[in-house]
Amino acid sequence: MSQELRFPPGFLWGAATAAYQIEGAWHEDGKGESIWDRFAHTPGTIADGTTGDVACDHYHRWEEDVAHMVAMGLKSYRFSIAWPRILPAGSGALNQRGLDFYRRLIEALNRHGIIPNVTLYHWDLPQALQDRGGWANRDTAFRFAEYAALIFRRLGAEVPLWATHNEPFVHVYNGHAIGDHAPGRRNPWQLLRIGHHLLLSHGLAVEAFRAEASHASTLDGPAPQIGIVLAIWPHHPASTRPRDVRANRFADGAMNRLFLEPLFRGRYPADVLRHFAWRGIRAPVRPGDLELISAPIDFLGLNTYSRLINQYDPLNLISGTRQVPGPGPVDAIGREIYPPCILEALRIARAYTSLPLYITENGLACHDVVGSDGVVDDAARIAYLRDHIAVAHQAIQKGIDLRGYYVWSLLDNFEWSYGQRMRFGLLYTDFATSRRIWKRSAHWYREVIARNGLLH
Ligand code: FCB
């Protein structure tokens, strides 16, 4: 028998994207080069040899995309601003045409009652700043704060939900240690340095946001809020053997606690710092940094897709850990489908803060195809979303202050080092023509939103 799972009034049903993954127009209207432009233009970096040069061509088709959101009934749309579109050289001269693009998009969303949830940095650093050391250079944090202040001054009042960063964990590890993301560095010795500067830049941006808000003119409606989006995945040990348990604790520490603890407790987790220090990896913390990093924010966004199962691995000299497959079925990327990840991730966050929480990303990678009847039948995605949303409902029943849920992603897009091979969208993107096709999951999600819940 099916059961109706209803969400609280005002729950934000959303979908998420990121600038480099959808916009294209990489070199138009005065935009500067980003580290992702440089990286994807380097042969051998992207599995299928594609780039984000055109991606979904959203830069030119944003009105059509807003129309899809309206038709779907989205309550909120999460997207990011490309820093090099605003400040082509990373700092200095403003590119008005870049700013106008986002202003028009935000105005259109507001006109349709779709709440913009805007991330300032989803990994596309201006290449000019990378040329000066990127996030390894402390100065980049101050350039970020200037960029943030400029955006808050121009667009601050129009956007109810601001996030400084998207998943600093992934940017640190994939971009700077593993090297399969831009800027393609393979330097684990700089892990904590990069992470610390990202967090510092968050703290400086929050400070700029508060300064701006204090002299902003009176507004109707609730005051804009600021937060950050973290990748929070639950970690489980592969066995009860002490060394697996220890390996698991470190893996959880490096992904979750390394960011939650400085943000909410004003210190780095001692066990993680010790582990890294033995390997010569240190965070260049200066007096006052942690106070800035832990300045109060208004909400926390969590991106969670699955769980990780960790086993001790002496051959991994940095982490001493490797991940082993779970028992459940996996998606096209090889991630285990594990709906409790929603509740477990929310609980991890809850241990640090009672702030309002949002699931800012959750979704499934599939090899979707358009059938001969023109239909994209992504039943697996519908099942995934249904089961994860049901757990989100459970979390609310258990008293967790979850305010919204965003599907990753609104439309199939450039999935970083996988290129166009991994499809996460509610809308199918035909990359040859940029045509969007509603998948079955998009129709299904529209009903969920209309009903403010699920028939489960
Ligand atoms: C997250 C990223 C997002 C997308 C999804 C699949 O880690 O924030 O850009 O790549 O994974």
What does this structure look like?
This protein has 456 residues and is α/β, with parallel strands linked by helices. The chain has a single domain, classed as TIM Barrel (Alpha-Beta Barrel). 39% of the residues lie in helices and 16% in strands. It has 15 helices and 15 strands. The chain has helices at residues 19-22, 35-40, 58-72, 83-86, 96-111, 127-130, 139-155, 168-178, 191-214, 242-265, 270-278, 289-293, 341-350, 379-397, 440-451, and strands at residues 4-6, 12-16, 76-80, 115-121, 161-166, 225-231, 235-237, 299-303, 308-312, 321-323, 357-361, 402-408, 427-430, 435-438, 453-455. The strands form four sheets. An eight-stranded parallel barrel has the order 2-3-4-5-6-8-11-12, surrounded by six helices. Strands 7-9-10 form a three-stranded mixed beta sheet, with helices on one face. The protein has a two-stranded antiparallel ribbon with strand order 1-15. Strand 9 and strand 10 form a beta hairpin. It is globular and about 60 Å long. Beta-D-fucopyranose is lined by residues 18, 21, 166-167, 170, 231, 303, 361, 408, 415-416, 424.
